[in-house]
Amino acid sequence: MPTFFKASRPPLFHLFFLIPLFAGLLLSGSLQGQKQAAKVKATQTTAEKGTGTPTTESVTTNVPEKKSANSTDSTDMLVVGGYYFDTPTLTMKKNHGIVITSGTFGSISDRNAEEETLANFKKEYPNATVVELSEEDYILPGIFDLHAHYNVTLAGRTRQEETNVIPAVYLANGVTSTFTAGEYFPERIFLLKRDIIQGRRVGPRIFNTGPYYGSVRRGWNRNATKEEIYDEVDYWALRGVGGFKAKGIDPESLKALIERAHFHGLTVTGHLDSGRRGSVNPQDAIEMGIDRVEHFLGGDLLPASRSAYASLQNLDPDDPKLLEVIQKYIDNGVYFDATITTYGSETPKGEEFAYWTDERRFFTPYVQKWIAEKEEKERARPAPRGPTQFEKIYAVKQKTIKRFFDAGGQITLGTDHPSKGNFLAGFFAHREIETFVRAGIPEGEALKIATLNGAKALGISEKFGSIAPGKYADLFVVKGNPLQKISNTRNVHLVVKGGTLYETAKLLKEVEGKLGPVDEDDWR
Fold this sequence. Notes:
This protein is α/β, with parallel strands linked by helices. It is built from 16 helices and 21 strands. Strand 14 (244-247), helix 6 (251-263) and strand 15 (268-271) form a beta-alpha-beta unit.
């Protein structure tokens, strides 16, 4: 993991590193007055080099792309039949033919002439793939998960990134784009991203974030200077991250992070606090220019005299002061990534937490045994008296998100669910969508939040987030109309990412029994 507080590289490294940075600055017309490029130690930390933990092998850049055996790669594709979600109108429209060429959406036929469309398409693209759907099929844009962790905490091991099963489960559930929202082992995610791009592994697009900025990162320097933070942001921006995540950060460091991220055209999000003990209240982060806020809205309703969670559990969603907080988000164009459902998952009780498939089949037999033993111990414990803190927060957040929506606030979907042996994040995206609706948000708006809003929050909605000509061909197909019953989003059977077709059942079958350590010595 790069650490920007230690010894710099030798001169040859600086030459290699400075050339692309200055080239980028020249192209942007911003060379004058800019700082010297970062002197970053780009070696892995001792913790990251540990043996036995799940790793992604190093890859080279000249390897030709190859596709999974569970996918159908076609330069050209026609999807005909069923219905598709039209984002501008928030309605389902009859699908007379969606053309996909070179990985992007081409024409979308509005004529009731499927046979003619099919004949013309086959004539123009004789080697293309044709996907014919039934009247029960509904096509949705690919999901954007903006709090998509790839790490797990299993069988007494430390929390760590898992790069074999989790990516496939995301994609199989129609999650075609993920923003990692902070990484414990950034090199693993960086290499996973390359593996997916080069066809070595199956998974969604990864907008990686590099390491956390703040005390949650092991070895974080609370006395880091503005220049040091600038240097590390430069380093990760040049490596192609999709944005940055702060957690446990102080005001001065956050301000520096935001400034330098924006210099590179990248967004910043944050898991913040109340302002207690040198933390940052979301209200103050908005003044600094933050782009998105995770978990809670902040403001005067979360006083600096105690932690954010201590106040949040007792927050009154009808308090008039809440509208003042919400208006600040709206006035400054700041998105709210609510991650509602992860708070309910600690003591899951509602229908939204029911399993519609056996998610535990993806764990290794060793982990499944550990889960069973853990649950037996939990059943033996006395039940808590009254609702837990997170149960209270789950109820508060549902009412808060509805008020935020009604006021015109911009919401994104984030799962924030690193599995501890129960739910997996890919499936969890559908629980979050359903929770939006349970909170009172209309089904069509919930689908927009899960798709287009994520792309807008990252500033890439011109190419992602909806089914429209010229955008990347990311979609998934479900049985049943989600506008009539939102839980139908769970019924995924086909996924297309960038023009490549995947069958959900095959993707999931391939990774059954592979998540987690295989014995007592593994992942140590």
